[in-house]
Amino acid sequence: MGNIKEILRLRIKKENEKRASYRKYIFNSHLVMFLLILIGAIMFNYSNWLNKASNFELYSVLFSLQFLMAYLLTTLKVKTYIREADSIFILPQEINYKKIINKLISGTIITKLFISIFFISISYPIINKLEFSIFSLLSYFLSIFITIIFFTIYKYYKVFYDNFDIKDMVIMFFIYIFIVINFLILPKVNFIFILAILIFYNYKKNMSNNINWYGAAEYDKIRNENYLKFINMFVDVPINTTKVSRRKYLDILLPKLSNNNFSRENTYRYYYIRAFLRQENTVFLIIRLLALAIIFVISFKNVYVSAVIIILFNYLAVIQLIPSYKRLNELIWSYILPVDEGIKYKSFKELIYKYLLISSCILLFIALVINFNFLNLVILFIATIMASLINTYFLSKSV
Fold it and tell me: How far apart are CA 167 and CA 338, in angstroms?
């Protein structure tokens, strides 16, 4: 029993140290400054919006916030800290390991409770303006609280003893949504958490007595990979496996094959474009980042917020794209093709500049459509220039 505790303690310590080192690089002084400005702008605009928003807008935003909370509570992965080799080396101590599982559950429950408290706190000004009673709010929070406890235990048991799949996620998500709908429509009482309790006890009756070592190990592996992919949006992290998809629908963006594509100057330009369109950790992460920036621009309708978002978007995007240069140059064709390093760098830099210029123009256009005047045009143009200077600085320092 003592050995298993020590193994888990070392694994937890190692993971926490690794994540702490990543957070140190992510939350540097530049990003913290941008986040402080952005949070200040959000609070200022949120207060102004509350004073003039209609009931329909209030209900829409309230439901959207609770919808996002339900999504996070459903998708937040539990931590098993199990490795594939444990099915051989720790199998004889399975009984002792079961005693440790219960201690892992409490940490996840606390994390989910903080998430729910955070979203309910953000939503409270809207709830207060819509004149929901304190009793209704307490009933809603109690229902969320009890559901979190039983669904977290349910999720742990499914991961450890069975197989947690998409069907379980859908059930959990819709029960969270039903709690939200009940709060918005019938706020006096909220007893939908009883469904979570019934689902848990119905599963527990048929629960296996043996740990699914391979399933739990695979689940934890995916959890760590997803975390690294998210962190890879900000800093260069080691990802053991990089999947490549054909993505035939994106071939329209590739330049047509010709002799010019394979000239000395253009070879890497073609390869970089193809790699960005087909490599999993680039194109969709960039699209999500752009979509998030567009949502902020549309939501706040403030030229100064839009200017900060354009700068912040370019900063995050260039930080995310820089590590791709190193990874792509480690592939075998970078050693086979006799091309100078300067040509590689120039091709990569042109690709980054084109993408970020197009993205910045999209954000600038949306911001101007929302609120067009000459002063706004000047402010956004200056923000775009500043973003370009940031891109130049980081590309020259890191590539």
Answer: 52
